[in-house]
C-alpha cells in the first residue's frame, strides 16, 4: 500500500556567495541531506531537533516553498517534487502550512478579513463577496475567535499573540486541506496560550481528519501530541520511532542528549553537568563519518570514518548509529 506522504532521499543544498579561496569553487550548505520518511494518513508526525538542524528547511520543502536539490516527495502517490507552478497551486487546496512566527506571518496592513479570505480569493472558491464573508466568519468561530465586524476589521497589531496564531490557523484551514505542516507553530507563544493553541489543533485534527507534520525543538511536546517522531541533526534523520518509545527508550546518543537537556520540574543539583556541550554545526563540507561524532561521548574510530545508515534495529524503531 502506497504511503500517504513519502519522502525519498530528499536534499536541499544552498550555495554560499563566497568561494573557497580567491579562485576556488563555490561553497555549499547541506541544509537537508538525504532525508527519507513516510507519514500515514491521520497521524501527527513530529520532527524534532535543535535550532539550525534543518527542520524549517525540511518543512518548506514539504510545501514546495523551497525547490529540492534532489530527491522525491510523494503525496498520495504523485511525485510533487516535479510539479510545476500550476500543479502546485491546485495542490495547495489539500496542503497548507502554519508558520512559526504569528507576528511576522500576517501582513500588518491587511485586516483579519482580508488575511483569512485570501486563499479563498486566490482559488476563486466563491463568486460573491457575501459568501466569502460567511466562510471567513465560520472559520474564525471554528478557531475560537469572534466573527464580529469589529474582529474582521482589526489588523494584526491589534491582536494578541494567541489571536494572531488562531488567525493563521483559520487562514491555513479555510480551503479545507487534509495535510498541514506546522513549523514551530506555538514556540513563540506564552505557555498558557500555547496549551490553548495545541488543544485547538488537536480538536481540529479529530474533527476534520487532518494529517499533521509537527516541527518542534521540544521533545516533550512531541511526545505529548505526536504519534511518531523523527529526530533530526545537521540535516540528517538520526532516529525514528513511536513518540513514547523514542522518549522512554532512546537509542541514538543525540536523542538521549535532547532528553537529558529537558530541565526538571524541581531543581536538581546534578542536572546539566553531564550534558554534552556544543551546537548543531552548519556543514559547508560535511566531514566523513557520523555528523554527531564530534559531540558524542561514545564515538569510536569507525564513527569518524563511516557514515551510518538509518536502519531498523527494533520493530518500527530506526536509528543511524555505528554503535548499534
List the helices and strands and how they pair.
Blueprint: E1 5-19, E2 26-39, E3 44-48, H1 55-62, E4 70-75, E5 78-79, H2 85-91, E6 95-98, H3 112-122, H4 129-142, H5 149-152, H6 161-173, E7 179-183, H7 191-208, E8 211-216, H8 219-225, E9 228-233, E10 236-242, H9 243-248, H10 253-260, H11 301-305, E11 311-314, E12 317-319
Helix pairs in contact: 3-4, 3-6, 4-6, 6-7
Keywords:
single chain; 324 residues; alpha/beta; 8-stranded mixed β-sheet; 12 strands
Q: Cα distance, first to last residue?
A: 30 Å
**If you average the pLDDT, what whole number results?**
88
**Which spans of ≥5 residues are poorly predicted at pLDDT below 50?**
none
β-strand amount? 15-25%
- Helical region count? 11
SS-based structural class? alpha/beta
Basic shape: globular
Q: How helical, in percent, are the residues? A: 25-40%
Radius of gyration, in angstroms, nearest whole number: 21 Å
Side-by-side strand order of the widest sheet? 6-7-8-3-9-10-12-11
**What is the β-strand count?**
12
Largest sheet: 8 strands, mixed
Order of helices and strands: EEEHEEHEHHHHEHEHEEHHHEE
Task: Please give a quick description of this structure.
The chain is α/β, with parallel strands linked by helices. The chain contains eleven helices and twelve strands. The radius of gyration is 21 Å and the shape is globular.
Describe this structure in words.
- Helices cover 31% and strands 24% of the residues.
- It is an alpha/beta fold and 324 residues long.
- Strand 9 (228-233) and strand 10 (236-242) form a beta hairpin.
- The longest helix is centred in the middle third of the chain and has 18 residues, at 191-208.
- The model has no long low-confidence stretch (mean pLDDT 88).
Amino acid at each position: 500500500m502506497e504511503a500517504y506522504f513519502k519522502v525519498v532521499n530528499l536534499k536541499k543544498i544552498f550555495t554560499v556567495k563566497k568561494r573557497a579561496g580567491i579562485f576556488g569553487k563555490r561553497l555549499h550548505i547541506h541544509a537537508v541531506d538525504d532525508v527519507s520518511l513516510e507519514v500515514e494518513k491521520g497521524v501527527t508526525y513530529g520532527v524534532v531537533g535543535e535550532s539550525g538542524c534543518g527542520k524549517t528547511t525540511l518543512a518548506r520543502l514539504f510545501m514546495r516553498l523551497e525547490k529540492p536539490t534532489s530527491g522525491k516527495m510523494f503525496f498520495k502517490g504523485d511525485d510533487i517534487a516535479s510539479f510545476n507552478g500550476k500543479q502546485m497551486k491546485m495542490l495547495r487546496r489539500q496542503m497548507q502550512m502554519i508558520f512559526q512566527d504569528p507576528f511576522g506571518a500576517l501582513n500588518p496592513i491587511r485586516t483579519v478579513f482580508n488575511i483569512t479570505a485570501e486563499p479563498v480569493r486566490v482559488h476563486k472558491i466563491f463568486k460573491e463577496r457575501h459568501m466569502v464573508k460567511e466562510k471567513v466568519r465560520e472559520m474564525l468561530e471554528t478557531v475560537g475567535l469572534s466573527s464580529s465586524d469589529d474582529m474582521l476589521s482589526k489588523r494584526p497589531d491589534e491582536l494578541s499573540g494567541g489571536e494572531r496564531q488562531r488567525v493563521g490557523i483559520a487562514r491555513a484551514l479555510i480551503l479545507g486541506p487534509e495535510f498541514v505542516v506546522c513549523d514551530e507553530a506555538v514556540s513563540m507563544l506564552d505557555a498558557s496560550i500555547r496549551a490553548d493553541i495545541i488543544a485547538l489543533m488537536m480538536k481540529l485534527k479529530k474533527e476534520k481528519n487532518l494529517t499533521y507534520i509537527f516541527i518542534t525543538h521540544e521533545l516533550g511536546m512531541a511526545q505529548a501530541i505526536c504519534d511518531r517522531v523523527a529526530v533530526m541533526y545537521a540535516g540528517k534523520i538520526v532516529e525514528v520511532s513511536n513518540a513514547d518509545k523514542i522518549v522512554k527508550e532512546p537509542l541514538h546518543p543525540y536523542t538521549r542528549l535532547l532528553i537529558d537537556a529537558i530541565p526538571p520540574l524541581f531543581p536538581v543539583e546534578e542536572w546539566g553537568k553531564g550534558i554534552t556541550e556544543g551546537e548543531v554545526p552548519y556543514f559547508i563540507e560535511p566531514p566523513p563519518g557520523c555528523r554527531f561524532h564530534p559531540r558524542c561521548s561514545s564515538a569510536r574510530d569507525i564513527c569518524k570514518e563511516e557514515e551510518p545508515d538509518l536502519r531498523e534495529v527494533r520493530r518500527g524503531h530506526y536509528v543511524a548509529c555505528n554503535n548499534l
